[in-house]
Write the structure tokens for this entry.
Amino acid sequence: MNRQPYEGVLANLDKVLTLCRDRGLDGDLSTSRFLDYRRCLERLIELSRRNAAGETITTEALAPDDQPLYLTALVESTEIGDTADYLGTCEPNSLRPKLRDVLRGPPLPMAEDKNSNQARNMMFELSLAAKLWSVGLPTHLGEHPDLWVEIGKRKLLIECKRPSDRRTVKDQIGPARKQLIRQLAREVPVECSPKFCSPGGA
């Protein structure tokens, strides 16, 4: 995750929100936590500018009860914003359901449960894909596997598991392994579309 000024975080978030609209997700976006995050960023930008102008900012400007939401807004807006360039190269039909999932979920991670954690699970998947793509690896979204990467003439299949607690990491390895074994057993050829194979769509 890159360190950025608030304005940069907001600009990158807006790139992803625009992409969501372009992919026909206006309805999902209208109730998304990312609109709450956007308002938090605008407030932080306002306070930062007032502080830079020499204005005294009181503690009431950002109440302690609001701080978890503002911190989450910064972290998750930065995370999704860092995927913007990669998402722009993805095949729309593969990307749309994943973006729809990401837009859902409660504003605070502590409020999620097994019925609402898919949003951040999917964000983990897209974030990993964007990181692999950013270092020059042709990276593709899928269902099973969640994503796959081209390394030379080989394909690396990846099943993403986001543990809710570090104590559950080992519990996630077995299911991921079984999913990958099933995928490999099918020996389904995965074709590469040149438009979506490398950074910048080259």
Summary: The chain has one domain: 6-201. Residues 6-201 form one domain. The chain has eight helices and three strands.
